[in-house]
Amino acid sequence: MPNQPYILIADDDPEDQEMIIDLLHQRLPDAGIKTIPNGREVMEWLSDCGGNELPRLMLLDYKMPGMTGADVLRATERDPSYKLIPKVIWSTSSNPEYVGICKRHGAVQYFVKPNDMAGLGRIADALKDLFMRT
């Protein structure tokens, strides 16, 4: 995927991945999408990327096994290579503590996963806007 701007999506739920990917492909047909099932693999992927091969945007599930989205935020905030990549968290939880932790560690937005396609469409629209701004 080098040289093609892409979104990195980390989520251990294949159905959630599939739904957001379908909507993103409709809104950003020329953008690449890389999916990863957990936070540890996100960190491996990022460390293997060259500087010009980093994602333009990251969407991280908060609750992933092994390494949560918040853990990925903490790990990436320590490395200036990842500072310019907008990081968005999405989760089934609206726990204010989770939201605060994520915002303090670099999330530009925190979304609660919706129960309907209209809500998912609004998240896809916000992701498109972030992707186009970077």
Can you describe this structure in just a few lines?
Helix content is 44%, strand content 19%.
Q: Can you put this structure into words, describing what you see?
A:
With 134 residues, this protein is of the alpha/beta class. The chain has one domain (6-133): Rossmann fold, CATH 3.40.50.2300. 44% of the residues lie in helices and 19% in strands. It has five helices and five strands. Helix 1 (14-27) crosses helix 5 (117-133) and helix 2 packs parallel to helix 3 (69-77). The two termini are 18 Å apart.
- Sheet-strand content, in percent, reads 15-25%
Shape: globular
Indicate how many domains the architecture comprises: 1
**Average of pLDDT:** 94
Main β sheet profile: 5 strands, parallel
Indicate the CATH topology.
Answer: Rossmann fold
List keywords for this structure.
alpha/beta, Rossmann fold, 5 helices, globular
Give a topology summary:
Blueprint: E1 6-10, H1 14-27, E2 32-36, H2 39-48, E3 57-61, H3 69-77, E4 87-91, H4 96-104, E5 107-112, H5 117-133
